[in-house]
Prior knowledge:
Layout: E1 16-18, E2 35-36, E3 42-43, E4 47-49, H1 58-67, E5 72-73, H2 79-90, E6 98-101, H3 107-117, E7 121-125, H4 132-145, E8 150-156, H5 159-168, E9 172-175, H6 185-189, H7 195-202, E10 210-214, H8 220-228, E11 233-236, E12 250-252, E13 258-263, H9 268-275, E14 285-289, H10 294-312, H11 317-323, E15 326-328, H12 331-337
Parallel strand pairs: 4-11, 5-6, 6-7, 7-8, 8-9, 9-10, 10-11
Antiparallel strand pairs: 1-15, 2-3, 12-13, 13-14
Helix pairs in contact: 1-2, 1-10, 2-3, 3-4, 8-10
Inosinic acid binds next to β11.
Amino acid sequence: xxxxxxLQLGLSYDDVLLVPQYSDIKSRSExxxxxxxxxxxxxxxxxxxxxxxxxxxxxxxxxMDSIGGSGIVHRYNSIEQxxxxxxxxxxxxxxxxxxxxxxxGDYLERASEALQQGATFICVDVAHGHxxxxxxxxxxxxxxxxxxxxxxxxxxxxxxxxNDLADWGADSxxxxxxxxxxxxxxxxxxxxxxxxxxxxxCAQTDRDVSIIADGGIRNSGDIxxxxxxxxxAVMCGSxxxxxxxxxGETFKDKDGFSWKTYRGMASKEAQIDWKGKYSSFEGxxxxxxxxxxxxxxxxxxxxxxxxxxxxxxxxxxKEFHSKAKFMKQTNAGNIESNTHITNRAW
Length: 346
Ligand code: IMP
C-alpha cells in the first residue's frame, strides 16, 4: 500500500537543466546524432513522426526519411488506405518507413500488408501498452514477422513496462503516458508519469531495447534532455503538425492567420471520423499555425541537438548518455531559462 511518506517525485522537462561541461569539439559537424535502434533500424536524425492522422501520411513520411528520421503511417484508416499511403511513399524513400497497427481486430492483416508494401518496421500503437493484449499481439507478430524485423511498441511509463514489452518481443519502446500536447489521459484517468521521469526510469532497463521518448517534446532543448536522460530517439506530434507535409486542410481565422487541425487520436473528433461514434476520450482536437515545410523545422532541430551534445562535450549519443549531468531547477530558474525580455518591468 502507498504511504504518503515514500511517494516518488516525478520530474519533467522544465524541472531540469543539463550542466555545461568542458568540450574539445570545434565544430557541430564533428557530432554524430545518429541512432542505432537495433534489429535493422537506424536513423541519422533521432526523430520519429507520431502515427496520427494529422501528422503522418505519405508526404510526412517522405520528408522525415529524407532528413534521416522516420515517419510512421497511422492506423486510423482501412488496410487498403494504409497500404496506399505506404505504396505512395515507397517510390521516393531512401531508408525507413514504419506502419502502425493495433493489438486486436485486423492488426495481423495490417502488418502482413505493410510488410508486402515494403515497410521497414511495425509500430504496435496503443495507449496503455503494458497490457495482456500487447503481450498476445507481440508474441503473434514476432512469430509472423520473424526475428529480423524491427518491432516498435508502446506506450509504457515504467521500468516493469519496458522490461515486459522487451521480453514479449519489442525492439524499441515508446515511453511516456499522458504527456502529449493533445492528451487528456491524466485528466480523465489520473494516471501517467511526468515525461522525463519516465525516461529516467525506463533507462534503467537491462534489456537490449531502445527507448523512444514520446509526447510533450516542444523544442530541441527537450529532445536533448530526453536523450541525456537515456532515450535513443524521440517521437513528435505537435512539433511537426501544421506543416506543408502534414495531412489536412489549411483554414484561415477571422484575422487572416492560417491554421491546420492537430488532434489526439483518442479525441472525440478523431473517434467519430474513424468509427462513426466515440467511447471514452483521452485527447482533444486543437489547431496549430501553418509553419511551412517540415524540413526547415527538422534542420533547426538537428542544429539544436548537435549544439546540445557539444555543451556536454559529447561526440555521439552513446557518449552523451554516459557524460550528461542534470541539475534540478526552481520555478525562478525555469523563468530565467526562457527568454524573458518581454516580462521585464522597465
Ligand atoms: P506531442 O508531440 O506532445 O504533440 O504528443 C504526441 C504524442 O501524443 C503521440 O506520439 C502519442 O503518443 C500521444 N497521443 C496521440 N493522440 C493521443 C490522444 O488522443 N490521447 C493521448 N495521447 C495521445
